[in-house]
Design brief:
The protein is of the alpha/beta class and 269 residues long. Helix content is 46%, strand content 12%. Strands 1-3-4-5-2-6 form a 6-stranded mixed beta sheet, sandwiched between helices. The structure holds adenosine-5'-triphosphate. The site of adenosine-5'-triphosphate has 18 residues, from helix 3, helix 8 and helix 11. This is ATP-dependent metalloprotease FtsH.
Length: 269
């Protein structure tokens, strides 16, 4: 049976406004990068080349996938995504051939973004890497990224929590031209993320009034954890036949998030 390694999303619906907590300099840099991609002719005139590859790194659940989708949307590109781990632990030659077909499919549909999450599984340092097969798969990725391939209209975006594990050959300019760190959100960032994930939800007045305090007391929480807080609180309200999220739903969700994590506590605001 042929297993599918990658997913194609015609045009992602996520926009940069759906991502909270990105440092403002980073947003500016991303906007500038997008301008270059959108108008390569003008950029070439002033001697700037459009980037071929972007690396996003940072802790889990901070919005790297969202950001890759928003970039694709901004430049009107189809979104091909795969996880680096889908190319490993395969029979001889399968990892390399999956890489090839991912790029070939995307080239047929350009403009396209190819997004590889957990890229460290695929492009880890060669010395530490798992043998000949893994080496062949990485070599194929490097070949597809430059090796004389016509990658016009293709933007490669990779994401990792472990930038230190990546092979230097992979990080070389021309393969990866821009690297952005996507950090855990600060208090203001957490408030932005909370606002995004409570938009359209019916909250009791008490919950609404507690959102600033919640942002202050959730230091160390990722965007994914904040989003799941409100998902979990809403589900609890629905289960109990209510259409407004109440303080007890939020407290329940906070307890569950803290219990589900080894490193979480609410800090004093
Ligand atoms: P991983 O490293 O684990 O792959 P990631 O950094 O790619 O994680 P996402 O998959 O983009 O994180 O985030 C998961 C979900 O968490 C998103 O779909 C979104 O609902 C929420 N989320 C995460 N970060 C943010 C953010 N900065 N702003 C708004 N929502 C966020």
């Amino acid at each position: 049976m042929k297993q599918s390694t990658s997913k194609e999303t015609p045009l992602p619906s996520v926009t940069l406004n759906d991502i909270g907590g990105l440092p403002s300099e980073m947003k500016e840099e991303i906007q500038q990068t997008l301008e270059i991609i959108k108008d390569p002719g003008r950029s070439a005139k002033i001697g700037i080349k459009a980037p071929k590859g972007i690396l996003l790194y940072g802790p889990p659940g901070t919005g790297k996938t969202l950001l890759a989708q928003a970039i694709a949307r901004e430049i009107g590109a189809k979104f091909y995504s795969a996880s680096g781990s889908a190319f490993t632990e395969l029979f001889v030659g399968v990892g390399a051939s999956r890489i090839r077909s991912l790029f070939e499919n995307a080239r047929k549909q350009s403009p396209a973004v190819i997004f590889i999450d957990e890229v460290d599984a695929l492009a880890g340092k060669r010395k530490a890497h798992g043998g000949e097969e893994a080496e062949k798969t990485l070599t194929e990725l490097l070949v597809q990224l430059d090796g004389g391939h016509e990658n016009e209209g293709i933007l490669f975006i990779a994401a990792t929590n472990r930038k230190d594990m990546l092979d230097d050959a992979f990080l070389r300019p021309g393969r990866i031209d821009f690297t952005f760190q996507v950090p855990l959100p600060d208090t203001q960032g957490r408030k932005e993320i909370i606002d995004i994930h409570t938009k359209g939800k019916r909250l009791s007045e008490a919950v609404f009034a507690s959102l600033n305090t919640l942002a202050e007391s959730t230091s160390g929480f990722s965007g994914a954890e904040l989003s799941s807080l409100f998902e979990s609180a809403s589900r609890k309200a629905v289960r109990e036949g209510r259409d407004v999220v109440d303080m007890k739903d939020l407290d329940y969700a906070i307890d569950r998030t803290i219990l589900g994590s080894t490193s979480r506590t609410l800090n004093d605001p």
